[in-house]
Structures are given as structure tokens and as C-alpha cells.
Amino acid sequence: MAANSADAAAETAAAYLLRRHRWHWAEALPWLVAIGVFFAFPDYLALGTQILIWVLFTLSLDLVLGYAGVVTLGHAAFFGTGAYAAGLLSARLGWGEPISALAFGALCAAAVGFVSGWVLLRYRGLTLLMLTLATSIMLYELGNARADVTGGFDGLAGISLKPLLGAFDYDLYGRTTYAYALAVLFVLFLVARRIVWSPFGQAVIGIRENVRRMHALGSPVHRRLVTIYTVAAAMAGAAGALHAQTNAFVTLGALGFERSATVVVLLVLGGTGRLYGAFLGAPAYLLLEDLLAKRSPEYWEFGVGLALVLAVLFARRGLLGLLEDAGRALARRRP
Amino acid sequence: MSAPLLETRGLSRSFGALQVARGIDFALAPGARHALIGPNGAGKTSFVNLLTGVLRPSAGQVLLGGEDVTRLSQAARARRGLARTFQINALFRGLTVVENVCLAIGERTGACDNLWRPAGAPAGRPVIDEALALLASLRLQDDALRQVHELPYGRQRLVEIAIALGQRPRVLLLDEPAAGVPSTESHIILEVIERLPADIAVLIIEHDMGLVFRFAREITVLVAGAVLVQGAPAEISADPRVRAVYLGEEAHG
């Protein structure tokens, strides 16, 4: 009898662990909403595109901050690198094919992520936080110093794209750019999802939960962190490249501290370490900002600040946490 | 006598004027059941930290399987078969019990190098099956899916050992495995360590003398960072110097 119950416990555990990376029906929701917006709100696709880009950027931060527990205030370094790499390719060298330029932006950001991560990720906590901040400030000043290349504070103009896949030209409503951004987000989301459910992804979570024990059980902690940091940098770089391509313009703000801080806010607001936080935090923040800015162009930031205070106080696990609690309450009510 | 699995030669470490290890010569043979005892502040945990690579010695060597590992990192030593448990739990508190063990197994087998295949079925099955078998051997299978922080402290101490066993160590260092466990439950820890695979060399640091004398076949007494005496349990309990050290300590408190 005891043996049977032990076997049953092991079987339950095995079944859970073996299947938990599989898709849940609720995971289709963000994509259905994104596709729905495309058809239902054709006038809002420009805003929608910017939201998708922020979602991708926030998702990339989730890999670093949410999964690996690396607190960074310099994530815009990678966004900006991707934006300038893709933008300069078109504006200075005349390369107009968008997908290869996006890949180039991601690659450049990955290189910056790899090199800076190799150096910085030996440190933790406040030291690391300061170092990520310093890195992004250095890149910002580099962009400023080489205004002849980057356009400096005037921004980088003259980015023009060839039709997407050689077939889809860009329309006034931004249908093509929205679909492009959504497709890029989807593909990179699949990559991120694959990684977090891999044994490597689990090891990265282990580093977040107890780095000391990971060292003690033989994990090459530094290598794991540099790897996830590089992947996240590439993803942030892709977001930056999308930003440059869809706005046809890049300013130093792409590298700025404000962007690094905002992306942390979006992630914490949405919920960390569960992939979908980015899909809630970024739209909630940007829609609220859009709404309040229209209502009260002078004081809208007060409203955003108030909403954040409430969210942090009453939704400790982010908006995703609220949804999870609601889902659980519903499940309990059903017999 | 077979060649030692773990050996130190003249191992010393000081923090300024404080010497926590003074020329320690120590050897652990395959299958050893060795206990390290000594009064508080004798340098027992520092010695474990020197063995595992948390601390670097000021002088002397650490050899693992005959290889000089003095300059190797903790993780490199762990990959060569040196596992430890912690005096104060060092667990993955937000994860389930089985995930805690899967991490040790995954890092040992190299599964954790893979960032593309799922940790679940089908690729992850061997790791999960091994983890669950290990939990069953420690009678932890019913808690497999509970988060570590939900467990009572005594069972958390078992998870501490389970992670180390997931590393399939050649040498296992148990740093006060029964610390913090109510005396009514410490027999559970003892049962587990008595059933450890015979070929593993085990070094246990423990204050509970009942546990030490039941488990150890060899005892080293450490005082003020130096080896005071080493021998079989009967010799140690009869040694007047050891008695003096412990009586002295007990007199203080």
C-alpha cells in the first residue's frame, strides 16, 4: 500500500515535470488580441507597433532580470545598439532590406552584450547595477561624441526600407510594419520560451534562486549568465532595430537611461520571470500613458506614477499575478 | 591502504592575525566514514570552505583523487566529484523539491548545457527519473512537487543532502547535517547518512556526539585551526586532551 502511494506520488511528479513546458490554451490569448487589434483598430496600428516593440524589449529584460535575477539599469544599451546598427546600415550605407538589417542589429547588440557581460557578470548586486548603468552611459556618450556618424542629438534620419520580403510595401496606416513587428515578436518569443523551459533555462533560474549553491554543485555560473545575457541583448537589439525601422529615425534616447528605467518598470508592472509579464506590463503602461497624455497633456505623468504606486502596493507579483489569482479563484469556484 | 581520494598537505589560512587553519594534514580514503569535531571556532567550517574552494589557502595544497585542485574553483572541484552540504540550508527555496535535485543532476550530466531541448519530455526524462528515484530513496517522494520553503526544517535538511547526492560525488562533506533539526527527528538524518553508498568517502562535521560516535570509524579533533588528535572513536573518547577541550567548552556554556 505504502509502495503504491509512493509510486503514485512519483508518477504524478513525473507527469507534471514532463509536460509542463507544453502549450496552455491561455497562451494563445495575447496573439489573438494582437491579431484582433490589427483588424478592429486600423487607426491605432502605429501605437500598436510601438507597443509590440516595447513588449519585445521587456521580454528580453525578463530573461535577464526575471529569470537570471540580474538586476540591470543599462538594458537600453542593447536596444540602442540594435537601433543604431540597423539604422546606420540603411542611412549611411544604403542597405534597405529590413530583415537582414534587423538581424545585423541583433548581432551587434549580442556582441556588445557578450563583451560587457563577460566583464560585468562576475559581480552581483549593487556593484553590477552600477556597472550596467555605467556601460549604457558610456555607449550614450559614444553616440553623442560621434555625432558625425550617429547624428547626435539631432537624431539619425534617412532610414529607408525596401518592401518587406520584396513584396509588401509600407502603407500610411502602418499595417505592414505592425504585421512585421508582430511576426518578429512571435518568432523571438518562441525562442525565449524554448530557452526558459530547457535544462539551461532551469539552471538560470537556479542561479537566481541560490547562486552559492549553483557554484557548489558545479554549475559554470559565469558562462550560464553570459549566455543568457547575450541572448537577451540580441533580443533587445532586435527590438531596437524594429524601433529604428518603423520610425525611420533614431535618437540618442534609444540608448538613454530613461529607456533602461522604463523597461524595468514595464516588467515589474507586468510580472517578472514568467514570460507573459511583458505582454501585460508594456501595453498597460503605454495605453495608460496614451490615454492620460490626451486627457491632460501637462500632468499625465502624475497619473502614470499613481497607477504604478497602486500596482506595486496591491499587485506584488505584477498584473500577471492578479490574473493568476483570478484564474485560481475561478477554478476553485467551479466544482 | 588505498590512495586517498581527498588529501590536504600543510593547509593553512589566516585572516590577518587570526589563523583558522594551521598546517592541516588530512586524508580521506575511498569509503571513509570520518568525523571532524572540535569546539566552536575551531575552524571546522573554514576547513570545509578550504576543501571546497570557497576559501583559498594561504599555504598548502588540496588534492582530489591525486590531482592538485588548490587553484581550482568551487564548481571545478564539484565537477570532479566533491560535494558538500551546508550548515545553514542553501536550497533553491522558490523551486520544488524535485527541481532542486534536477539542477544537481542536470549540471552533473551536462544536460544544463542544452538551451534548446525541453527539460520535460522526451529529452528530460532521464534527469527527471533519476531525481525521483533519488527522492524515493530518501523517502522524499511525497514532497517532490512541494516548494522547498513549505517543508518543515527537518525535511529541508534532507533536501540539502539530496542535492549533494544528485551530484553523484566521490567525496561528500556534510557540514552539520543535523543542525537545527529537533532531536526527536535527528534519527531520520542519521538513517539517511548510514545508508549512503559505501564507496563514497564521507566527512561529517557534527556537534551531536551521539551521531558522530554511531557513524564515524575515524575521528579528527580540530582545535584552534590545528589537528589536535586523530584516531578511532574509542581512542578519541578516551583521550584526556579531547576531554579537556570538551569539558572546558562545556564549562563555558
Task: Sum this structure up briefly.
The complex is a heterodimer of chains A (335) and B (253). Chain A is mainly α and 335 residues long.
Quaternary: heterodimer
Number of helices of chain A: 15
Secondary structural class of chain A: mainly alpha
Low-confidence stretches of chain A: none
What's the alpha carbon Rg of chain A, rounded to whole Å?
Answer: 21 Å
Beta-strand share of residues of chain A: under 5%
Number of strands of chain A: 0
Shape of chain B: globular
Main beta-sheet annotation of chain A: none
Strand adjacency order, main sheet of chain B: 6-7-8-3-9-10
Largest sheet composition of chain B: 6 strands, mixed
Helix content of chain A: over 70%
Number of strands of chain B: 10
Radius of gyration of chain B using CA atoms only: 19 Å
Secondary structure elements and pairings:
The complex is a heterodimer of chains A (335) and B (253).
Chain A: H1 2-19, H2 29-40, H3 45-67, H4 76-91, H5 98-120, H6 125-145, H7 147-150, H8 175-196, H9 199-209, H10 211-216, H11 221-247, H12 257-270, H13 277-295, H14 300-314, H15 318-333
Helix pairs in contact in A: 3-8, 3-11, 3-12, 3-13, 4-5, 4-6, 4-11, 5-11, 8-11, 9-11, 12-13, 12-15, 13-14
Chain B: E1 6-15, E2 18-28, E3 33-37, H1 44-52, E4 59-64, E5 67-68, H2 74-79, E6 82-85, H3 97-109, H4 125-137, H5 153-166, E7 171-175, H6 186-194, E8 201-205, H7 209-215, E9 218-223, E10 226-231, H8 233-238, H9 240-252
